[in-house]
Amino acid sequence: MSLVLSRPAPRTPESLSDAEIEQIGADMDAIRAEVMNDLGAADAAYIRKIIKIQRSLEVTSRGILLFSQFPPAWILGTVGLAIAKILDNMEIGHNVLHGQWDWMRDPKIHSTSWEWDHVSPAAQWKASHNQIHHTWTNVIGKDDDLGYGILRVDEKQPWTLGALAQPAVAAGNALVFEYGIGVYDAKVGPMLRGEVTRAEAAPLLRDLGAKIRKQAAKDYLLHPALSGPAFLHTAAANLVANVIRNIWSNAVIMCGHFPSGVQTFATDSIEGETRPRWYIRQMLGSANITGSKLLHIMSGNLSHQIEHHLFPDMPSNRLAQVAPKVKAVFERHGLHYEAGPMHRQLGSVWAKFFRLSLPEPELGRSRAAIIASAVGEAAGGLRTRVRERVRQLAGPVVPALPALGAA
């Protein structure tokens, strides 16, 4: 008979003593300081090399696509362009806009001047991502990145009838991810919910529209026009490259934020939050992807999402270096370090999308009963709105109408 030893359950933030919390904060400060004080020529050479590779790959791929009417050229150019767009968004754009390379004081590689191959204007993305998401990571009601307002990714988020379509919505969002981010950053959701006025959203929508037009002109007009008779082939290649980029970046972001091992936090749990407690929230509210160096580069090193959330302004090429030290802090305090291969993390995310598309059963009420009740309420609300609209249109001609569906 073999003896099976089970691992102790991971500790929760509430189980940590004040002394442990302060020690974690001190350890994280030390890890960050060691790297930030060591930045130099090798780091600058790294980002410049990545930018050179990306630009060379994009120019070469677009050149090949000038002959996209030939299938080999179409395939090679499309794949190359997709990779170039992924590098632009992930390892370069995301990280430059985080200010990771501002220490170089190079005006061409700086968070205040960089613009990326993405429909969301850099300034809007920085406001929603750097200032809101990274400040309120996984705090329900404050971090809108928890499902982006269209997905239910935690049991604490209320279930609605619309959640039934969640798997299809998630798949559609992956295909047009850059547009979803652009609309999200422009606060279209809060505007539709009445949380932001149209006047407040107007400048954001104007800038978003300008950026969309610029991107569309480049990918679907100018570049195809240079292809002459291959116009449609090149336009299609750009479309496919953009979709590949969208699917990949969506997968990386989902894997870093929504696997089953990632924790969320109530708003009242962060009252009076100190820097060490903020560290702990980042530690437990993110997930890593294990894999090769190529995967790390293609993911913008967001495969080290935990370390990125702990140190958002640390250059991405250094995250792999600090990961073992960060993991050691987790282990010393019995905390769960969520990491796994991409297929496992992505599978966990999609299992959650399907599971949370359904309501949790209640005492005396099955899922089916809850869904049926929600459908009935929605139908009743629709009948009421239709009846009111008919009355408004009818005006004084028809002073009263019988209830729809009445005998």
Kindly estimate the percentage of residues that lie in beta strands according to DSSP.
under 5%
Distance between the termini: 73 Å
What is the averaged pLDDT score? 93
Q: What's the domain count? A: 2
By secondary-structure content and strand pairing, the structural class works out as mainly alpha
- Contiguous runs where pLDDT drops below 50 for at least 5 residues: 403-407
Helix content: 55-70%
- Rg from C-alpha positions? 25 Å
Give the overall shape, derived from the CA principal axes. Answer: globular
Question: Largest sheet, order of strands side by side?
Answer: 1-2
Count the E strands.
Answer: 2
- Main β sheet profile: 2 strands, parallel
- Tell me the number of helical segments per DSSP (H or I, 4 or more residues long): 15
Element string (H = helix, E = strand): HHHHHHHHHHEHHHEHH
